[in-house]
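Example 3.2
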Amino acid sequence: AYLVFGAFLCLFMLILMVNIREAPEIATGLGFVIAAFAMLAMVLNATATVVNERRAGTLGLLASTTLPSYRIIMGKLIGVLAYTGPLLASACFLLFFGATVELLERGFYHEPAGEWSYFPGNPLMKAFWTCAWIGAVYLALMLFSFTTSIRLKTPGFAYGANLFVTLALLLVPGFFAALFGGTPLIDIPMG
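Structure, written as tokens:
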């Protein structure tokens, strides 16, 4: 996961050196690609932790300990977050970087400052709400992956169901935005 992130970061720096005028669009697009990759890696990691515990026979032992269930779940959540969280943080960094460069370009062109204060014209607010949306979907997918992996008995069904839901959440908003030309509900999370 980190090698792919490094490759994306090198590609971003190379494109940034070649064409600085396209930096906000490139950073935003690359941020979305890294966020999607982080969600796919997280779903596979979350599913693998439960499937491997079931395969090794330790899931029943873990459930029968005297530890409270919320501590077991928090341990699993922190383990998955430690693996894929840096990818998600770098995606949000790129979204904020693109918004900051866009805001600086507006300042250089002396656009009226009154337009920066409300939501549709403020790129930093768009980046903030986009990162909040991505974080909420990330946590919901993580909990869904754990729940589905525990409920479904075979590893193939668990991986299949989790990947299907993840791909649906990642692709359906973009499909409807392209089909209908964008709606306010889709435009907010899409940045």
